[in-house]
Amino acid sequence: MSKLLMSCILALGLSMTPALMAQGSSTVREAQQALKDKGFDPGPVDGLNGPKTRSAVRDFQKQQNLTVNGRLGSETLASLGVKSGAGAHMDAAGSNLKNSYSSGAKQVGEGGKALGTEVKHGNVVDGAKEFGKGVGHGVAKMGKGTGHAAKNAAKGTKDAVTGK
User: Fold this and answer.
1) CA 43/CA 103 separation, integer angstroms
2) What is the CATH number of domain 23-80?
3) pLDDT tens profile 141-156
């Protein structure tokens, strides 16, 4: 039982490390400055999420009717008008997927349409070739977009861990 408990604690600690490390960053400095600009005192703008910063965050969260927990989560950062570098990369990764999958799916659809036209005219083999081309080109676009998304997600993860 103690091994299970220790494993759970270790897993939780490891999963929280990137979020905690990201708190000692330029994102925290930007949040501190935004809090100061809005009339809340986070203490010095030093990028350290200390007790004064957490207190100012709680006061801001109360005023904005957000969940009051003193954490600089995505909802609080968005309300402050602060976007973390990690978030920008993750947004880019989402855009990569959306764009590549929509254009890739369009090409697959065009291949299907060509298949239907060829089969209608009795050219089953030519139809299958056209369908294969559409699927091939479409999936290639999806793969390329997924590759770009993975790179952006990796940059976002790196930024979260290093605090950039």
Assistant:
1) 49
2) 1.10.101
3) 778 878 777 776 777 6
